[in-house]
Design a protein that fits this description.
about 280 residues, alpha/beta, nine-stranded mixed sheet
């Protein structure tokens, strides 16, 4: 079956190669790759154009779209309109697949009909400059208190996405809104029990934490999900604002240590290498 992979980007000259090489290396060849550039001014478009021949030589359908958009979710919608694969994966610029066999392992010898196929993700942090550390985001869909799995760690049925599209009034949490709508409307989810991407934790929902939190609460209210009390919400939003201020104003070393502490406080184990994660019995 044809699988669509979509990468949206803007001024991503320093990282777009990494993502495109990850797609190019996939052993599964029945791929349609759409790269949507919002009009970069740093040479991103020129880098993308140079890959066209390599993708076509590997039997991968390649589309490079340069068009203005109103943000990441509008860009995703523009690319989704063009998608013809049965499933779509949205792989952000600077994120990569775990290895060259991920897509093949999921679709190579299997037929799928579910609306959402999802797995786990490795989250890559740099709490200390020059030192990468990792956590494991285990996917699940029984609890939508927060994003249940990484957006890059799922393949969404194209026809289902085109029933809804991303609601662009949300600037940071439209992916959460889309998945929660699927869940509320009885769409079928399936955990494929594998790691799909390695995600660099510098995306919009990880840096714009105040907006992300407020939008998540509003989405849950709109869709009649349980939400914190008004007092708790206001306090949490205030705490997010303090944290946001610190991220932008305090020295990198201090912020890194603070974020590392917060990750551990949430019960996440921090790994020194990717190998420590993939060697777990869960993936053997």
């Amino acid at each position: 079956m044809l699988i669509t992979i979509i990468t949206v980007c803007y001024n991503a000259a320093d990282c777009i190669r990494r993502t495109m090489e990850s797609v190019l290396g996939q052993t599964y060849r029945n791929i349609e790759y759409i790269v949507k550039d919002g009009g970069s001014a740093d040479g991103t478009s020129e880098i993308i154009s140079k890959y066209k021949e390599r993708f076509e030589q590997n039997g991968i359908q390649f589309w490079h779209i340069v068009k203005k958009d109103s943000g990441i979710y509008d860009a995703m919608n523009q690319a989704t309109i063009l998608a013809t694969g049965k499933y779509i994966n949205y792989l952000n610029a600077d994120d990569i697949f775990l290895n060259d066999y991920v897509v093949d392992d999921i679709f190579g010898d299997k037929e799928h009909s579910e609306d959402v196929l999802y797995g786990d993700a490795i989250c890559e942090y740099e709490f200390i400059k020059g030192k990468k550390e990792y956590t494991l985001w285990k996917g699940q869909h029984q609890d939508f208190k927060l994003m249940p799995f990484s957006h890059q760690a799922c393949f969404l049925k194209t026809s289902t996405v085109k029933e809804y599209y991303y609601d662009t009034k949300y600037k940071s949490a439209a992916d959460f809104h889309l998945l929660l709508k699927f869940f509320k409307d009885g769409k079928i989810f399936r955990n494929v029990q594998c790691i799909i991407p390695i995600c660099t934790m510098s995306g919009i929902s990880n840096t714009n934490i105040v907006t992300s939190y407020k939008e998540t609460i509003q989405i849950k209210r709109n869709l009649c999900m349980e939400t914190p009390t008004k007092e708790d919400t206001n306090f949490n939003a205030w705490m997010m604002e303090v944290k946001q201020w610190m991220i932008y104003r305090m020295p990198y070393g201090f912020v890194g240590r603070l974020m590392r502490f917060q990750v551990q406080r949430k019960g996440k184990k921090i790994y020194k290498s990717i190998e420590e994660i993939i060697d777990q019995p869960r993936y053997s």
